[in-house]
Amino acid sequence: MSQAAFVKEELQNLFCSEKKETRLLELLRQMQPYDLAEIFRDLDVDLQRELITHLSLAHAAEVLEYLEPERTYELLSRMDETVTSLLIKQMSSDMVVDLLLAIHPLQAEKLQRLLPADYRKKIKQLMTYPEDTAGGLMTVDYVSARAYWTGEQTIRHIRKVGYEAEIVSYIYVTDQRGKLFGVASLKEIILADPKTPLSDIAKTDIISVPAETGQEEVASVLSRYGFYAVPVVDRQHRLIGIVTYDDVVEVIQEEATEDIQKIGGSQPLTEPYFKTSIWSLYRKRIVWLFILFVGGAYTATVLESYQSTLDQVVALSFFIPLLIGTGGNTGSQIVTTLIRALGVGEVKFQDLFRVIKKELLTGMFLGMSLGLIGFIRAWIMGVTFDVAYVVALAAMFIVIWSSVVSAALPLILSRLKADPAVVSGPLISTLVDGTGLIIYMTIAKMILEL
Amino acid sequence: MSQAAFVKEELQNLFCSEKKETRLLELLRQMQPYDLAEIFRDLDVDLQRELITHLSLAHAAEVLEYLEPERTYELLSRMDETVTSLLIKQMSSDMVVDLLLAIHPLQAEKLQRLLPADYRKKIKQLMTYPEDTAGGLMTVDYVSARAYWTGEQTIRHIRKVGYEAEIVSYIYVTDQRGKLFGVASLKEIILADPKTPLSDIAKTDIISVPAETGQEEVASVLSRYGFYAVPVVDRQHRLIGIVTYDDVVEVIQEEATEDIQKIGGSQPLTEPYFKTSIWSLYRKRIVWLFILFVGGAYTATVLESYQSTLDQVVALSFFIPLLIGTGGNTGSQIVTTLIRALGVGEVKFQDLFRVIKKELLTGMFLGMSLGLIGFIRAWIMGVTFDVAYVVALAAMFIVIWSSVVSAALPLILSRLKADPAVVSGPLISTLVDGTGLIIYMTIAKMILEL
After folding, report:
1. Is the pLDDT of residue B326 over 80?
2. Which of A315, B46, B64, B118 is most buried when burial is the number of CB atoms within 10 A of its CB?
C-alpha cells in the first residue's frame, strides 16, 4: 500500500498547481476502486470532485459505491447535474438504493429526479423491499436475453448493454412474458456454435429465490450451490433482479457477528463498534444483564435455604465459585458449538436424542476427570477428606447435568422457532448456577450426614 | 425439493428394470450437481456408477466434487480406468487435491497414475501447499493469455481450452516469462474492438496474493475488493493459480465457526459436529476446562482467607454466585463484541484507550443500574440494610472492574500477536470471579466494620 500513500501525498499538491501530471493520473486510473475510496476518505470534497472528473464513468461510479452514503451524497450534490445523473445511472442499482435509503428523504427525492423515468421507476420499486430480503439485496444490473435468441445475437446484445451491467458472466434467459426460463453462462454461449438458440444452451433447472426470501436463506442457497449470483423472481416467477455473491459475503459476516454478540449475552449491535453510542451499548446490554441478574438472584434463595449446612461446614462455601463456574464453562462450550452447528445446518431438532447421548457420554468423561482434579485440589487446601470427596462428586455431577441441559436447550428452542442463539453463555451459566448449588448441597448433606 | 424426492424414488426401480425412461434421465441431466450429490448419498455404489455414465462428463465431475472424498474414491475405483481418468481431469484441480489428500496415500498414488504427465505434475505441486493457504485453496483451471494477443485471438483460445477451465470470466494475462501482467474480464474483451491487444485491455494494477498467504487474508482481500477470483503468484511473481470466490465463502464460514467455538471456551472442532468422536470432543474441551478449573481454584483460596468475615455474616455467602456471575456476564458481553470487532478489522490495538474509555463509561451506567436492582433484591430477601448496601456497592464495582479488564485484554492479546479469541467467555468469567470476590469482601469489611 505504499503506492496508495504516495498517491495521497502527491494529490494534495497536484490539483492546487496548474500542471496536471499525466503519470499520476495514469496511476490513479489503474488503481482498484476500493483503494481509491480509501484515499478519498482523507481528501476534502473539492479535491474529491476534481479527482472524480479524471476517472472514467465506470471507475468513478465504483469508487462512489465504496464510500459511505453521506459522503457520496455530499460529493454528488456538488457536481454538475448531468454528471451526477450519469454517475448514478452507472452505479450498481442495489448501491443506489442503499444510498437513497441512507440520506434524507428530500435529498433522495432530489437525486431521483435526475434519473430517466424508467430507471427511476425500477429504483422506486427496489426501495420497497425490506433491507434483509432477497429483494433488498438484489441489483437490476444484469443481462437478460430471450430464449429464441442465438448465441451470436446474445453476444451482440451484451456488447450493446454490457457497459451498464454489474456482471455478464451469467445471462438470464426469459420467455416472452418475462418469466425466468433458464441461465446460460457467458462461457457456455461462447463455447457453443454461434447459431445455437439460447433455449438449447441454457440450463432450465434453475434455482431462484422469491423476492421476500430472508437474507440468511439467500446466503445459504448461494453458498450451497457455489453460484456467483442467484436470480430473484416475483410471485408470477418473472425475473426481477439478481443477488451477487459479494452481497452474500457481507450477509454471512453480519450474521456471524450477530450470533457472536448474542452468544456473548448481548443484543446484537446494529452499527460498527465505534459508531455505537454509549447509550446504545447500555441499552443492548442491560436487557440481558437485568434478566440474568434478577433470574440469577434465585441462587441467593437456594443458598439461604441451606444456611444451616453452610453454618456447620463453612469450608463448603469456599468451593461455590469454582463448582458453579465449571458448570457454566461446560455449558458455554456446548451451547456455542450447538448454536453454530444449528446455524450452518449440521444439526437439526430431529437429532435431539443423538446430541443428548453424545453430550452425556462426553460429559461423563469430563466430569470424572474434573472430579478427580477437584479432589486433589481440595485435599491440598487442607480440608477434610469428606469435604474433598463432596467437592469431587459435586464437580462430576454438575458437569454431567450441565451437559444434558446445554445439549437439549438450543435444539428445543430451534424447534419452537426461537433463535437458539438466545441461549448465550451467560444464560446457560445462570441456569446451571442454581441447580449446581442444589446438587452440591444435596451431596454435602448426604456425605457429611448433616 | 419434491423433485429430488421423486427422482430418488423412481431411480431405485428404474435401473433394475431394463427400460430406461428418457424423461427421468432428462430430468437428472437438468438437475444441479449439489442436489444430485444429495441423492447420490442414499444410493448404493452400483447405482451411482450406472447413473454417472448417463451424465455429461462436466456434470458428473461436478457431482463428484460435492461428495465426500471417500465416496468419490469408492465410485471412481469401480469405474473403467479411461472414464476415471477423464472424470478426474474434468474435476476442478483444488477438488482433486482435496480428494488425493483425504484418501490413503497408496490409493492416491493409483489415481494419480491415471493422469497425463503434465497434469500429474501440476497436481503434485498443488499438494505441497498447506491446506489453509492461498496455495492450498487455489485451482489451476483458469485461462491465461499472452499480453500481445488480440481480443479475437483470446476468444478463439477460450473456445479451445475453455471446457476444462473452472471460470473464464477473467482472463489472466502474463508476459513471456509467465509473470502476471494483468487481468482482463471476459466482458471487457467482448466489449472491446476484436483487434485490440490484451495489453491495452487488461488492468495492470492487479491485486495478487503469494502462495503462502493465509486463508483468512485471502478471504479478506477477495471480499474487500468484491473480486470473483484472485490470482496466486510464486516468489518470482509468476502466475501459478487462482482462488475463486466459492472457496472464500467456505473459509469465511469456517473462520466464524472457529471463533464462535473459541469464544465458547473450547478448542475449535476440525470436523462437523456429528463426525467428531466423543473422545475428540473430550480432548478439545478438557484443555480449557482443566486450565479454568485449576486456575479458578484460587477463588477457594480467596474465600478461605475471608473465612472469619463469612463466619460472622453468613448472609454474605448467599450473594456470591449472583455477584461473580454478573461480573462474568458483563465481561462475556464485552469480549465477544471486541473479539469480533478485532476480527473484522473495526477495532485495532491503537484504539486501546478509546475502547477502555467507552467501556468504562458504559460499565459505570450498567453498574449503577445493577447496584440499584441488587439493593432492592437483597432488601426483599430480608437481610439487613447494611448487607443490602454491601451487595449494591459490590455489584456496581464488580461490573465496572470487569468492563475495564474485558476491554483491555482482547486488544492487548491482539497486540502480542496472540489470537484474541483465546479470551473466551469462560476465561474472562474465571478471571473476574476471584477479583470480584476480593472487591465484595473488601467492601463488606469496610461497611460492616468487621
Report:
1. yes
2. B64
pLDDT one-digit tens code per residue, A3-56: 556 666 666 666 555 555 677 777 788 888 888 888 888 888 888 888 888 888
Global pTM? 0.78
Distance, in Å, from the CA atom of B327 to the CA atom of B405, rounded to the nearest integer, reads: 11
Q: Does B449 touch chain A (CB under 8 A)?
A: no
Distance CA A374, CA B54 (A): 63
Query: CB–CB of A285/B362 below 8 Å?
Result: yes
Within 8 A of A260 by CB-CB distance, chain B residues are: 256, 259-260, 263, 336-337, 339-340
As a whole number of angstroms, the distance between CA A6 and CA A12 comes to: 10
Q: Do A351 and B245 touch (CB under 8 A)?
A: no
pLDDT in tens, A371-382: 999 999 888 888
Q: Are B293 and A370 an interchain contact pair (Cβ–Cβ within 8 Å)?
A: yes
A268: left (phi over 0), alpha (psi -120 to 50) or beta: beta
Residue of B nearest to A318 (CA): B300
Q: Do A249 and B223 touch (CB under 8 A)?
A: yes
Give per-residue burial for A218-239: e unless 16+ CB within 10 Å, then b. Answer: bbbbbbbbbbbbbbbbbeebeb
Predicted-complex ipTM score: 0.78
Spatial distance between the Cα atoms of B185 and B189, rounded to a whole number of angstroms = 6
Q: Which residues of chain A have a CB within 8 Å of the CB of B34?
A: 224-226
All 3 cell numbers of residue B85?
481418468
CA–CA separation, B107 and B338 (whole Å):
46
Contact between chains at A260 and B265 (C-beta distance less than 8 A) = no
